[in-house]
Design a protein that fits this description.
There is one protein chain. This protein has helices at 58-64, 89-103, 117-125, 129-134, 148-151, 161-171, 182-192, 199-210, 214-225, 230-233, 253-262, 279-282, 284-298, 301-305; strands at residues 19-24, 30-36, 43-47, 69-73, 110-115, 135-141, 240-245, 266-272. It is built from 14 helices and eight strands. It is an alpha/beta fold. An eight-stranded mixed β-sheet has the order 1-2-4-3-5-6-7-8, with helices on both faces.
């Protein structure tokens, strides 16, 4: 039985969805989807990262739902989406376009935001006609397109083959994470968050990450270890903003800078000083503000008037 995958009180406790549905992906994988806010409001679609769930976006959902229709879904094997056989960037793209098709009317567009593996999902889907139909703009948070293990700084040693090999073994470990203990919180904070992260933010992230099934965590770690989406970045032609934390050890700021330089239509790079990998939790206002700016600029009145 899965552990409770989120805190139950405070600003990082996920709010109740207005409605829930299941989106069926191309290979039959079933994806849990939540919709918050009014049907006629501008649409935002949120894709979470590796080992996370819809609960990771709690702060953004709370802030945006009063004025937007916020659609969040659990990646396959995460949260309330059952595990599936396929683990690949193709599967990630299939899942995103399935969610877009299940929640948006034909031709209706949304701002699509992704954190970590969610950002990689957006890159993987960039060349799909369904993505072109529905994506008005994109936000990439704390993510990268390639060389993730080689450039990770989780281990405090000099870059090189030895660090890459050990980092891959650590991130791809099949060992269960176990309960959330004081030691577990310290480890998670060091690896994924900035040194100034408040205890409630660490607790919220720890609850989510530790709830991810071990097999799912391992399977997706193998995909991320071999990730190469550089060619797909060149196909991400919608206006795209990039956010990264300067203290990110998992996807160091070099990734955000590289994406901003490679994207054909980058509309801004935000470097969050002292923030780690979990930017939607560590800097919720900055991430929410970026989403609001994109919806204000790139969702026109005809998009706002359509309903799914």
């Amino acid at each position: 039985m899965r552990r409770l995958g989120h805190v139950v009180s405070g600003p990082y406790a996920p709010p109740a969805a207005r409605r829930e549905l299941v989106a069926d992906s191309a290979d039959g994988a079933r994806l849990h989807v939540e919709v918050h806010g009014d049907e006629g409001a501008p649409a935002v679609v949120l894709a979470h990262g590796w080992t996370c769930s819809t609960a990771f976006w709690a702060a953004q959902v709370r802030a945006l739902a009063a004025t937007h229709r916020v659609i969040a879904y659990d990646q396959r094997g995460h949260g309330r989406s059952p595990a599936a056989r396929a683990h690949s960037t193709t599967a990630l793209a299939d899942d995103l376009v399935a969610v877009l098709g299940a929640t948006l009317a034909p031709g209706e567009r949304a701002v699509v935001a992704g954190h970590s593996m969610g950002g990689m999902t957006i890159m993987a889907a960039a060349g799909r006609p369904e993505f072109a139909e529905h994506a008005a703009a994109a936000l990439l948070c704390s993510t990268g397109s390639s060389r993730l293990v080689a450039q990770a700084q989780v281990l405090p040693v000099r870059a090189g083959r030895a660090r890459t090999r050990i980092t891959g073994a650590v991130l791809g470990s099949r060992a269960p994470l176990g309960p959330v203990t004081p030691v577990a919180r310290k480890i998670l904070k060091y690896a994924t968050m900035g040194p100034g992260s408040a205890p409630d933010k660490v607790e919220a992230c720890a609850r989510i990450v530790h709830a991810c099934p071990t097999g799912v965590r391992h399977a997706w770690s193998q995909v991320l270890a071999g990730l190469d989406l550089d060619a797909e970045v060149a196909r991400l032609s919608v206006p795209t903003a990039v956010i990264g934390g300067t203290a990110d050890r998992l996807t160091p700021i070099v990734h955000a800078r590289g994406l901003a330089a490679a994207l054909p239509n980058c509309v801004g790079l935000t470097e969050l000083t002292g923030m780690g990998h979990m930017t939607p939790v560590e800097a919720p206002e900055a991430v929410t503000r970026a989403v609001r700016e994109l919806t204000g600029l790139y969702l026109d009145t005809t998009d706002k008037e359509k309903t799914p």
